[in-house]
Amino acid sequence: MADKPRRPRADAVRNRSRVLEVAYRTFAEEGLSVPIDEIARRAGVGAGTVYRHFPTKEALFQAIVASRLQRLIDYAKELTDAGESGEAFFAFLAFLVEEGKEDQGLVDALAGIGFDIAAAMPGAERDFLAVLDNLLTRAQLAGAVRMDVDVRDIKTLLVGCQAMQRYGGDAELTRRMLAVVRGGLTST
């Protein structure tokens, strides 16, 4: 008879949750360069506690990115179901740029800085690109987006827009930049 896996203790579950919460906020604000020991200190746990749940910094970041990407995927699906194709596509782009202002860790992951999302989480990268491609294709078929761009072009634009947020992301600049991107993508 096989042993049943033990359920984690309540304090272990709380510690894991606390580490994820603190790590998310820290990576979002400061990027991926923050050491594990600093995340442990901010979470009020020992480094051993962090390493017990996440044996590497990459494993910790992977758990965070998986959760964040799922949130983005769910939102893209909501937009696909709810809105006009062109507006849904441009709303998702604007949302991703805004997310970049608040979540430097996600920006780094999408750009491949310090974490190769495609290698570490091929399913998550594939799923994200699939919903982005679906929004793009629907917008193209509706005549709202030019036909000579593909999902890789859009991801490149997103990474650039998100980087702009990091280095000069005031609201007016973001609004103008999104208008330029929309103008460049709009079919004529």
Outline:
The chain is mainly α and 188 residues long. It contains ten helices and no strands.
| Biggest sheet features | none
Terminus-to-terminus distance: 68 Å
Low-pLDDT runs of 5+ residues are none
Q: Classify the beta-strand content into a percent band.
A: under 5%
Please give the count of helices. Answer: 10
Q: Using only CA atoms, what is the Rg?
A: 19 Å
Task: Report on this structure.
This protein is mainly alpha-helical. 77% of the residues lie in helices and 0% in strands. Helix 1 packs across helix 2, helix 2 packs across helix 3 (47-53) and helix 5 packs parallel to helix 9. The radius of gyration is 19 Å and the shape is elongated. The termini are far apart. 31% of the residues are buried.
Keywords summarizing the entry:
about 190 residues, mainly alpha, single chain
Question: What is the strand and helix layout of this fold?
Answer:
Layout: H1 10-30, H2 36-43, H3 47-53, H4 57-82, H5 85-102, H6 104-111, H7 117-120, H8 122-141, H9 151-168, H10 171-185
Helix pairs in contact: 1-2, 1-4, 2-3, 4-5, 4-8, 5-8, 5-9, 6-9, 8-9, 9-10
